[in-house]
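Table S2 (text version). Query chain:
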Amino acid sequence: MALLSVPTMLLGSQPAAVEVLQPIDIENVIRLSRVTYTGYYQDGAGGAISAVLMTCDRNIVPTYADPQNLNVAADAGLKIRVEFNSGHEPPLFGDTLRVVLDATPLDTLNKSISWPDTTIMSATVQCILVNAAQFPAIKRVDLKVEGKSLYRTYAGVFSTRRFRCGPIRRDFW
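Corresponding structure-token output:
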């Protein structure tokens, strides 16, 4: 007699935790750090698409003074969009997740941010790839970048295999 295993499904009334890698400003070094968001995430990809979208979200991190947003990508105004393959579950294009990183806010970067725009871009792209690699069905990320031609050098089709165990580089100066 064979036993059937019933997969546990996340229902709309059950909150889930999504772990996201973000570029965090810690003591004048951008460190790729994990931030956990709790909410209702049903993206058809085990939370990986939500994690990619939250790469540039503001966060609230307790500091020695008071809670602050330490996400450098959010401070710089970067935004992420994911193109979905409607009618497919998960909504990937085969094994590829299509991501658009809007870097146009870097053109008018707030002067209170002390990081070069290329450093912010490098750290953010690394986070996107690690966040996508959380889901085994995503083998590649097709990353498009909007903004100056300099920023488009960060675009391309990337394999997530190298990022399954975490980022290649953790600290950015």
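Notes on Table S2: Helices lie at 48-53, 72-76, 117-132. The chain has one domain: 16-172.
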